[in-house]
Specification:
- The chain has helices spanning about 5-30, 65-70, 80-85, 95-105, 120-135, 145-155, 165, 170-180, 185-195, 200-210, 220-240, 265-275, 280-300, 310-315, 330-340, 345-350; strands spanning about 75, 110, 140, 245-250, 305.
- By secondary structure, the chain is mainly alpha-helical.
- The longest helix has 27 residues, at about 5-30.
Length: about 350
């Protein structure tokens, strides 16, 4: 084959490579891992060393054992909203909450166990695994969007699969495909490298969200969704109590609500559909309202402190950079609300309100 015939293909590869590098640089700045650059470095803490490390798996300033051994520890169970690698360590709401408490004379240290992709169930599992090691006094739960997506996938698949189909063993062909392959396979390796590129992820997300708009979407997870979410919350409460800590629940805030449904930007709706191809925008926001009601009910029934972040911040879109992640100002508002609530927590103040 002549060079003239290969030239168009080579130009396409050069342009694709340049676009991939540009997208990876952007992804790194936004805190996402990439094929070429790997995992991004966390934003600087603004003074002092911080985790996560292998020994200290929290995005918080490292514990000063000489000074903080006796200070109560506050474990924050959350996801990317509390981890937020786009912000400096000191500016994310879990760590900022503790700083505000110290200014009020409430000595405590932060264990920011927030991590992208976590759900209430995985928060509970991590607390069971490492709670005894780090001995938190209080566990604060701020979590929801990933639970909605996971529960939507569970409930959304049911109309298309019978109970017999869900419980049946995989077919021989599926089992064979799932089995480990012997030897190195160039095709499999190349496919995985392509899927790891940022271009592929962008195109897949765009296609997923666009296709999802054309399929029937449901407007509610109903009572079954509420019960499943309640079970997850109670699991977290039990894990906190088992570690000797007092659980504190927080409602979940969003940039837009059912009341402002019509003004929700289309890009926000498409972003939701990247992760959830079962719920409509109305259904997703309905789930937030229903699950917040579950949190309020569980707090009342279990006699737990509730910090109503949703009542104070939902609908204030200027405090969010998308539907659920906060701006720096948003983190500050959440921290103020949590500090106001935790300053009255007997587990931190020995019953003396601050």
């Amino acid at each position: 084959m002549s060079l003239r015939l290969l030239a168009p293909l080579l130009w396409i590869l050069v342009v694709a490579a340049a676009l991939e590098v540009a997208l990876e640089v952007r992804a790194q700045r936004l805190g996402w891992p990439t094929l070429l650059f790997g995992a991004p470095q966390s934003a600087e803490a603004g003074g002092g060393a911080s985790g996560p490390t292998r020994e200290f798996p929290f995005r918080s300033p490292l514990l000063d054992t000489s000074a903080a051994t006796s200070a109560p520890r506050v474990w924050f169970a959350s996801a990317s909203y509390g981890e937020d690698v786009q912000q400096a360590v000191r500016d994310v709401f879990p760590n900022l909450t503790v700083e505000l408490l110290r200014e009020r004379g409430v000595e405590c240290v932060a264990l920011n166990a927030s991590s992208a992709g976590h759900t209430t169930a995985s928060n509970a599992a991590e607390l069971r695994e490492r709670g005894g090691e780090f001995n938190p006094r209080v566990v604060v739960l701020y979590q929801m969007s990933n639970d909605i997506d996971k529960l939507s996938a569970t409930l959304g698949a049911r109309p298309w699969r019978s109970a017999a189909q869900r419980s049946a063993p995989p077919s021989e062909s599926l089992a064979k495909a799932a089995a480990p392959n012997e030897g190195f396979q160039w095709g499999l390796w190349l496919g995985r490298q392509v899927e790891a590129t940022t271009i592929y992820k962008h195109l897949k997300s765009l296609a997923t969200s666009r296709v999802a708009t054309q399929r029937p979407l449901v407007d509610s997870l109903g009572r079954e969704g509420e019960l499943l979410f309640e079970g997850r919350v109670l699991e977290l409460v039990a894990a906190a109590r088992a570690s000797g800590a007092t659980p504190v629940l927080c409602t979940f805030a969003t940039a837009y609500t059912l009341d402002t449904l019509a003004s929700t930007p289309q890009e926000y709706e498409l972003n939701l559909l990247r992760f959830n191809v079962f719920l409509s925008l109305r259904g997703w926001l309905d789930s937030v309202e229903r699950f917040n009601a579950v949190l309020r009910a569980v707090a009342e029934r279990e006699q737990l402190q509730l910090i109503d972040v949703s009542a104070a911040l939902s609908g204030r879109s200027e405090l969010f950079r998308d539907m659920w992640h906060f701006t720096k100002e948003g983190h500050a508002e959440v921290a103020r609300l949590m500090a106001d609530g935790l300053a009255r927590a007997p587990a931190l103040t020995n019953g003396a309100p601050r």
